[in-house]
Structure formats: structure tokens, C-alpha cells
Amino acid sequence: MTVTVPSKVNVHLAVGPARDDGYHELTTVFQALSLTDTVTVSVAEESSMHVAGEGEKIVPRDERNLAWRAVDVLAEHLDTTPAELGPVRIALEKGIPVAGGMAGGSADAAGALLALSTLWKLDLSRDELTRLAGKLGSDVPFSLVGGTALGTGRGEELLPVLTRHTFHWVLAFAQRGLSTPRVYQELDRLRDVGDPPSAVGDHDVVIEALASGDPHRLAELIGNDLQIAAVSLRPELRRTLRAGVEAGALAGLVSGSGPTCAFLCEDAESAVQVSARLSGAGVCRTVRVASGPVPGARVVEPDGGP
Ligand code: ATP
């Protein structure tokens, strides 16, 4: 049973003050991108996890892996134990950078949830799956649903945004990942010592720009409050962001908590040109072209492939 699941970019990310529970109140507009991970599950003699592709050496293979936690959440939902459900082999083929601000771990959790519930014929509705996804992490429901959506709360309360147009992106992967909690702490610190201006405006106008399909209009509005914190921790990102625009992108921003930089391009052809120029600029580890919106987690190979 093989499921493919998208990455995301936050085209708009407004971060409110820290709440009593330590989380920040967010208003975000997510877009699911064609850069994907693949999750394959099968019944096995013994449970095991296999990881290949992006960041394979640093992804945990044990219960810290978010895809494993999907087994626990399903068992809990069925009022049983993982042992009762039986051993499974979970294989991740990663295209999404690890700790890159593109929700790679959340994608694998959403993929595992859909793949395992299909493998075990649990017959869960999309709504039930989305509720279980919320237990695995704030970004997991969006990985399941995909498309373009407005997220509030911790980002897990979703409202779909209708867009009939495809947008073209270039993604610059950094040498090393960034820890999401560390980036939020840095934002809190910067807000404590000064008053950094918010990088974002009103989400309604962003949604209108998405609906218009005009990348020039959207380019003027994309923004991320976490960018200032990511750049503070990794000053070299400033150079990457500049290089993308110099390479011909309409605008660039740090994706989520970073350090991946996402550049909005005029069209598919321009994205290919920007990616070639950016690769030659030596300001990042890897460059990828992607488009969005794309659907959320979906079964591609019911029998797990050849
Ligand atoms: P987000 O955008 O949701 O804040 P991220 O994309 O920045 O997250 P992830 O790739 O999800 O970050 O990884 C964050 C950490 O989670 C990693 O450092 C890794 O130790 C752990 N992790 C757990 N499961 C996975 C997984 N399946 N893939 C990648 N990392 C995982």
C-alpha cells in the first residue's frame, strides 16, 4: 500500500503572541506543493522502518518518527494495542527536506495514517482521519487534505481556499535543518528585546490574490513572521533570498520555520530558469522546482508496488 503526500509552503504566516500552553496563535495560508514523500506500508513478520532519500541519515527509525506514531493513534482510536493490529513494515521515500519548514515529518504521519487505515481496511471517513491527524501534530491535518487552506489555532483548524490556478515555485534547500521550537523561541526573544515589524498583512487579500491566479499580485503579498527569526539564526539565508530574486523570481520567503527558501515564479518556464541560475549561485545545497496546489495524501499503489 503506497501513499504519496505533499510538502507545504506557508504563503502567509502571521504569528500571534505565545499562549499559556506555550503554543503561538497562528493565522496561515498553506499551499500543498508537488515536492512529495512516499509512504509504503505492508504486513510483515516483524515491525520495521526504512528511510531513503532526503536526509535519510538523520531521520529517526524508532518511535520518535511521526509515521510510527500513526500506528499508536490508530490503535488508540480502535481501543486496541499496536501489537493487536500486527507487525508492519513502513518505508519512507523522502523528497521533502528534513527540518526544512516544509512539514516533512507531518507529511509522513499523514501518509502513514492513510496507508495503514487502508491496509487494515478500517473504513475511516476523511473527517475521522483528519481528527486523528490533529492528534499527531498541527500540520498533519493539512498534509492529509492538501490544496490551499487557511489554518488557524495552531494551524490545525482548516478552511479550504478555492484556487483554480497553479503557481510555480523554486525551493532552495539549506545545508542543515532548523528546529521549529528554536525558531519560535528566537521570535519571542526578538519581540522581547525590540519590536520587529510584522512581515505580513491581511490574510484576506492573500486569499483574493490566490483566487485571481495572478502570481505578480500574490508576489507582493507573501510574507512570514517567522522569517526574521530564521534569518537571525541563519544570517546566510539573506543571501539566498536575494539570489532567488536576482535569478528572476517574483518574490521569495522562508518556508514556515525555515531554513528552506521558497521563490514564487511567473510561470513553469521561468521556474526552470530561476532554478538553473540559483543552482549556479552557490547559496544553497539543492534546488527543486515545484508547483501547487496539489492534493493531499492519496493512495497511488494499493498493492505496495512491484
Ligand atoms: P514543520 O514544517 O512541520 O515545522 P519541518 O519540516 O521543519 O516541520 P520535519 O522534517 O518534520 O521538520 O522534521 C523535524 C524533526 O522531526 C526532525 O529533526 C526529525 O528528528 C523528526 N522526525 C520525526 N519523524 C520524521 C520524519 N518522518 N521525517 C523527518 N523528520 C522526522
TrEMBL record:
<keyword id="KW-0418">Kinase</keyword>
<dbReference type="Pfam" id="PF08544">
    <property type="entry name" value="GHMP_kinases_C"/>
</dbReference>
<keyword id="KW-0067">ATP-binding</keyword>
<comment type="pathway">
    <text>Isoprenoid biosynthesis; isopentenyl diphosphate biosynthesis via DXP pathway; isopentenyl diphosphate from 1-deoxy-D-xylulose 5-phosphate: step 3/6.</text>
</comment>
<dbReference type="GO" id="GO:0016301">
    <property type="term" value="F:kinase activity"/>
</dbReference>
<dbReference type="InterPro" id="IPR014721">
    <property type="entry name" value="Ribsml_uS5_D2-typ_fold_subgr"/>
</dbReference>
<keyword id="KW-0414">Isoprene biosynthesis</keyword>
<feature type="active site">
    <location>
        <position position="139"/>
    </location>
</feature>
<dbReference type="Pfam" id="PF00288">
    <property type="entry name" value="GHMP_kinases_N"/>
</dbReference>
<dbReference type="InterPro" id="IPR006204">
    <property type="entry name" value="GHMP_kinase_N_dom"/>
</dbReference>
<protein>
    <recommendedName>
        <fullName>4-diphosphocytidyl-2-C-methyl-D-erythritol kinase</fullName>
        <ecNumber>2.7.1.148</ecNumber>
    </recommendedName>
</protein>
<dbReference type="InterPro" id="IPR004424">
    <property type="entry name" value="IspE"/>
</dbReference>
<dbReference type="InterPro" id="IPR020568">
    <property type="entry name" value="Ribosomal_Su5_D2-typ_SF"/>
</dbReference>
<feature type="domain" description="GHMP kinase N-terminal">
    <location>
        <begin position="65"/>
        <end position="147"/>
    </location>
</feature>
<comment type="similarity">
    <text>Belongs to the GHMP kinase family. IspE subfamily.</text>
</comment>
<feature type="active site">
    <location>
        <position position="8"/>
    </location>
</feature>
<feature type="domain" description="GHMP kinase C-terminal">
    <location>
        <begin position="207"/>
        <end position="280"/>
    </location>
</feature>
<comment type="function">
    <text>Catalyzes the phosphorylation of the position 2 hydroxy group of 4-diphosphocytidyl-2C-methyl-D-erythritol.</text>
</comment>
<dbReference type="InterPro" id="IPR013750">
    <property type="entry name" value="GHMP_kinase_C_dom"/>
</dbReference>
<keyword id="KW-0547">Nucleotide-binding</keyword>
<dbReference type="InterPro" id="IPR036554">
    <property type="entry name" value="GHMP_kinase_C_sf"/>
</dbReference>
<feature type="binding site">
    <location>
        <begin position="97"/>
        <end position="107"/>
    </location>
    <ligand>
        <name>ATP</name>
    </ligand>
</feature>
<keyword id="KW-0808">Transferase</keyword>
